Amino acid sequence: MKVTIRKSERLDIPQIYNMVKQLATYEKEPEAVTATLADYYNDWDAGIFQVLVAEKDNLVVGIAIYYMTYSTWKGKMLYLEDFVVDAIHRQSGIGQLLFDAFLSEAKRLGAKLVKWQVLDWNEPAIRFYEKNAATLENQWMNGKIFFS
Amino acid sequence: MKVTIRKSERLDIPQIYNMVKQLATYEKEPEAVTATLADYYNDWDAGIFQVLVAEKDNLVVGIAIYYMTYSTWKGKMLYLEDFVVDAIHRQSGIGQLLFDAFLSEAKRLGAKLVKWQVLDWNEPAIRFYEKNAATLENQWMNGKIFFS
After folding, report:
1. pLDDT tens figures, B49-74
2. Distance to chain A for B58, nearest Cα, Å
3. Residues near A110 by Cβ (< 8 Å), separated by ≥ 6?
4. Looking at domain B4-131, which of 3.10.20.740, 3.40.630.30, 2.40.160.10, 2.170.120.12 is its CATH number?
5. Shortest distance, CA A83 to any CA of chain B (angstroms)
6. Which end of chain B is more exposed for a tag (fewer CB within 10 A), N or C?
């Protein structure tokens, strides 16, 4: 299996968007995705998020969407917003390749740490992060206000 | 009481840094703040974070530290990383003024939502966010990997 991990190019954006939509459908919330493909083009162009993609046979089979944030206690913190491997390519090591590339990118950018979130019932994901010696915290609540 | 809410200037950075340090001391973790004042200058200059400050009698008495992030489902999302009002100025409405200014800034920047985190035992803060009609979610864990 030849898999390449690389930074996204503009022509990857439709595939990236489709992977996000597929995941939302799998999670039974397809209507929750209100960002459009045009938003993805605009916001990627503006540098609001970056993506590492896993490519196999000229197809995107995994994505790690991230951006730089700030920990007021530690300093620069690279945040992993979305991390998806195509269902038929799971358990193949592609997730670890992507995660390792994300960690390398964080170090290259001078981040002091990386952060992400995981649902507390997502045991395969939690095991993956534990295997990667992550610190997992469960005392925080997310607050959100949506504008409409 | 004359309080001004405004965007931070470079000369506010020492006071902003001190407010973060004071909060960490109050939370009994002063040694956890390893970011230096020099980091704050560099990272503010680089635009990695922005700050709204509440000023009274030429002193900074409250801060809201934020940056743009991305919701893959909704689009642009302004993230409130730190939100502090000086202990002697609490219950005076300054927090609401700062929070309102943060929401206005988010709308001005075209964000589709705002997000932040709150400790699940911090009842006064949770009441404040409920009063602001926020959605609070408790099913997410934070994952972190620190580089040293």
Report:
1. 999 999 999 999 999 999 999 999 99
2. 23
3. A76
4. 3.40.630.30
5. 11
6. C
